[in-house]
Every structure is written in C-alpha cells, then in structure tokens.
Design goal:
The chain contains 6 helices and no strands. The protein is an all-alpha fold. It has one domain.
Length: 125
C-alpha cells in the first residue's frame, strides 16, 4: 500500500472511531459519512494505476474495521499513532477536511463531541 493509500486508510479508522463513539453504528451515520466522502473527498483525489481514488481507501478501511467490530478506541489510537509518526502528511487543507467530516458525524452522535474536541486539539497543535 502506498503512502497516500495508507494515509486515507488511517483516516477511515478515525471516522469509524467517531461514528462509533457511542459504541453503536447506525445506518444514518454510515450514510452521512459515505455522502460526505463522495461529495468532499473523492472529487479532489487522483486515481491510481487501478483507477481507484485514494480517498476510496477511507471506505475500505472503515468497512474493514466495521466488519471486524473493532473497538472505537483502538481505531482512534491507530489514527493518532499514524498522525504522530507522519504529521508532515497532514497539510492544512487535509486537517480541515478531517475536522469538517468529523463534525458532520458528530451531529448524529451524542458521544462524538468529546472525541472531536480531542481530535481538534491534536490536529491543530
């Protein structure tokens, strides 16, 4: 997996953690996430040699951790560790897109605001 694909996979872990912050993942959260990714992420990305947008890895990773019923805290820590090790990969535009997407998910989940606040502190430092 190339670096950009790995980056988007870790973002998929983050979005799973936010969507599951209340330990439940409902259809509305998944639908909203997929809508936001289609509208705000996919149009901005180039395709690879297999004609796959790098941002598609957000879907793939999200679906993978969902099917594994991963603990949201583990998915979040996976993202945090990747972020700490690869902070230079997160430019201002990418950090803002991450925040906007997590805020879109937050409106559906009462447990998410705490996690999004923690994420804001991490990304904006």
């Amino acid at each position: 997996m190339n670096r950009q694909h790995q980056l988007y996979a870790k973002i998929g872990h983050l979005f799973y953690a936010v969507a599951c912050a209340d330990r439940q993942l409902n259809c509305d959260e998944v639908s909203r996430l997929k809508h936001v990714i289609r509208k705000q992420w996919l149009p901005l990305e180039d395709t690879d040699e297999f004609c796959v947008d790098a941002a598609q890895n957000i879907f793939f990773a999200f679906d993978t951790v969902q099917s594994q019923q991963a603990a949201p805290s583990n998915a979040y820590e996976n993202f945090v560790q990747y972020y700490a090790d690869n902070k230079e990969d997160f430019n201002t535009l990418l950090r803002e897109k991450i925040i906007r997407t997590t805020q879109a998910l937050t409106s559906l989940d009462a447990a998410s605001p705490t996690l999004v606040h923690e994420l804001n502190s991490l990304i904006r430092s």
